[in-house]
Amino acid sequence: MKELLIEAADAVSNAIKQLEISKAGDKVGMGADGTPTQRIDRIAEDAVLKVLEKNGNPLNVLSEEHEFIDNGAEYTLVLDPIDGTFNAVNGVPFFATSLAVGKERLSGVQWALVKDLTKGTVYFAEKGKGAFADSKRLRTREFGKSTAFSVYMGALSEDESFRIARLARRARNFGAASLELCLVAQGSLDLYYLHTKAQAKLRVVDIAAGTLIVREAGGEVFDVDGNILDVDLNIKTRTDIMAVGDMKVLEVIK
Amino acid sequence: MKELLIEAADAVSNAIKQLEISKAGDKVGMGADGTPTQRIDRIAEDAVLKVLEKNGNPLNVLSEEHEFIDNGAEYTLVLDPIDGTFNAVNGVPFFATSLAVGKERLSGVQWALVKDLTKGTVYFAEKGKGAFADSKRLRTREFGKSTAFSVYMGALSEDESFRIARLARRARNFGAASLELCLVAQGSLDLYYLHTKAQAKLRVVDIAAGTLIVREAGGEVFDVDGNILDVDLNIKTRTDIMAVGDMKVLEVIK
Questions:
Q1: Nearest to A91 by CA among B221, B126, B232, B133
Q2: Per mean pLDDT, which range of A29-33, B41-45, B178-182, B224-228 is the poorest?
Q3: Distance from CA of A240 to the nearest CA of B (A)
Q4: Model ipTM?
């Protein structure tokens, strides 16, 4: 499975390299999740679908563009071809492709791959077998003095977000959830927190891969009430999220 | 001058590539600005000083490590060898080297170069001759509906920061001022805003290059009271900052 996911992620990297940045943001349709599809999303998704087809369509596909493609397979690819589309389209060098393979629910994800499309780092996890960045084993960091959170902020954030941002020495936000979850997994950040009004909540395609990577690196992913996060693998699902590297973070932010 | 700055930035890229990330954050001394110097800062600064020496020391140097090196030159290199040290040391792919050449004050900066040390993009400006990313001319963006601010947040932020973060559809923060100023210059962001308690304010080495790049791209850089920013080129200087691509942003945030 790892080889297939790497092949798909590489296909995304190559496809978007040939795209002029001035056209990357053109609206080319409406996605199954109700948000407009931009050219870069379409091109990236097509690249992945082509790889699957070449390999005999061994997976069903859940994606923003197609909702659900039933290939009669046991497992489903939960795909966000470009996570951080705003960044990608506006020249901010922080976005990724996110691929998870599982069934039914977030807890049923077995394999996960996130590729940083700027730096090229490949984050991969298989359930029960650990998380890796390229070939390096990932471990979340122990919570200590030099706190660094990523907190989603802006007009659609709930007030709680601003309270939490004040609790860290550094409160960052990079605008690509899948890659920020990987930063928690590799011990760059102590917390990723997103708590927003409905239209800014995350879709399962944004977090399916990153969630497994955090968990396999020793962290945990919750909803904002502190329940271990589990949602249906459905394109209509929207959720808040709180991912920590060390459970001590929960004490500090409550 | 451009060739010399490019040579210096390339020397930084090469020097830090050979550095193991696990050792990048070792404290190796105390800087002239009163913050500890980490190994990555030292290595990057030494690389720049070597390039200057090879070229006959044509510039004085203002830097965190050495305060002021008087080479009897007309102009001074205002150097932050690694801007975004926390990111660099903790595996967050967003940090830069920042080099500005000028005399006496921020307004006396004539040449500026910021290199994104992850992606490799080189931002360059010469006073009166425009700003460029690699060979592409930079223009700030017109303020419109899809607002994106970078607002520095955390325990040391002043309250005003949180008020402003709510005004944007997206409030990001990436943790490397020089590179965030370049994002304003290239029209990725509408605003860069940092308003903090004393110990988190910016040094002139963090902003000297980015400020010229924003101004040459059509934007402006202010203090948080709305005065055009100008400070002495002195390693002890600390300042808040507000950089905009379009003056309309000032109306929205006041």
A1: B133
A2: A29-33
A3: 16
A4: 0.94
Mutation choice for B interface testing from A90, A169, A196 by most B CBs within 10 A: A90
Both tokens assigned to B220: 């402006």
Is A181 in contact with A219 (CB distance < 8 Å)?
Answer: no
Q: Which residues of A touch B189 (CB under 8 A)?
A: 90, 92
The answer to whether residue B168 scores a pLDDT higher than 70 is yes
Indicate the residue of B118, B121, B173 with minimum beta-carbon distance to A172.
B173
Radius of gyration (C-alpha) of chain A in whole angstroms: 17
Looking up tokens 């197609």 gives A66
Picking from B121, B166, B174, the nearest residue to A155 by CB comes out as: B166
Beta carbons of B153 and A151 less than 8 Å apart: yes
Given a cut of 90, whether residue A62 has pLDDT beyond it is yes
**B138, A21 in Cβ contact below 8 A?**
no
Q: How far apart are CA B55 and CA A135, in angstroms?
A: 41
Instruction: Give the type of residue at B2.
Output: K
What pLDDT shows up at residue A220? 98
